[in-house]
Amino acid sequence: MPTRLECLDRTLLLAKTLFSSDVESAAISAALSASPVALYADSETLACSPGQTGIVTTAQLILAMGIPVHLVAPKAFLSIQPPLVGDEFGEALVTYGANLIPGASLTLTDTAEETDLVFDFRSSPSVRSQQPGWDVSGSQCAGAISQSQALSKPWGDSDHIGAGVAAVLCAAEAFKHGMRRVVKDTGVRPSVEELLMPAHSASFAFDSARVGSIDGRCIGDIDIVSGGAITMSMVHALLRSDAIGHIRVIEPDRADSSNLNRYPLLTRADIGQLKAALLSRYSAQHLEIVGQPSRLEPKSIRRLGPFAPTMVVGADDIRSRWLVQGVQPARLFVGATADFMTLTSEHPVGSPCARCLHPVDDGVRGVIATVSFVSYLAGLALAWRVLSTVGQGPCSEDRQALVAWPLRMDLETSHAWQCVTRDSACEYCGAHVARRFRPPRPQPNRRSVRRVSMK
Ligand SMILES: [Zn+2]
Predict the structure, then answer these.
(1) N or C, which terminus of the chain has less Cβ within 10 Å?
(2) CA–CA separation, 326 and 321 (whole Å)
(3) pTM, two decimal places
(4) How far is the CA of 351 from the centre of ligand 1 (A)?
């Protein structure tokens, strides 16, 4: 069995960047282990599928950081919540928690007294215990948390994207709390004090008008390059949306213990399996998932084609983004993370392309520091983009890219929607290529002209 430090390796690496001097991995791991959080749920929240998604995803993202979770909830039937299996909601989460990060289990309890923080998903106004806590709500494509006020909780009217946003907000607070404990336990100073401050309230919304009702929507054929954290997070969200389609995942690697900190469809029992095979195991009646255990590279591109009109790149490697852009899919979606930042974008054919947005290969090939809620937000944003593009067509130019820092979503500067600027020299969409996509001049309708002339 992998050790706790092996499983948390990438998260500990990222956590260390928050402090002004060296901190031992074991000290950070111990602080996370000693910072349990409680999730409160009631029958009303658990009766609707997005309510369950909010609690399950929150528990997953927090457990993946090595933080124990206590669940205070009545018994309820489990809705479709991959990778959870079983009939009863709480028991399924206990089983999941026992197979993720050693030393961070999920416990069913009647009281949250032994925990440091509380996240309250209950629908009705409720009395909380003494710990600091947040009221949690989800609505269409939006999530919110608040320390001071009881939020309106239309979990029944929410969707799974909104529930995912709420989970990201909660997990960021649990992480910062663990980091503040590191400061308390070791005496080390944060490199930037403000980064670790708790949010009094925080919210984030994708554009719900662009999605409308996402359930039962046909998303067609999609090829995804990489079966890593961003892809798994995107598929985690799509599997809950009832989107109808066919996904092929192109990924040659096998899962290892250092993936457990951010792959929401992976458990310890899956270590050593091909990621492509693992994802195909979640193929559902509405969303077929086929694994292609191959590496997409110049020498394999002919063999792996023809490609679907919609392509997604979740790979860290910038050259993979260029390679896929070179295939010229009708629409390309790219998800990327760096430290605590996410950058997601969409590139319908003819618009400024992925190479314009990622023009430089930094050549970095080392171990990448990551944490669960950052990767999840990137995957969630891609799921939203895929669902909304099918619903409403390409996004407006000023929303082609989204930069977000989920560590402090309470700040106005925590996210920015952006245009992608075309590089006139870009080999895929520069001036010489863009001419091909110039919209044709309006032509008189020949049929109507002919009809007129016949009179
Ligand atoms: Zn370009």
Answers:
(1) C
(2) 9
(3) 0.93
(4) 8
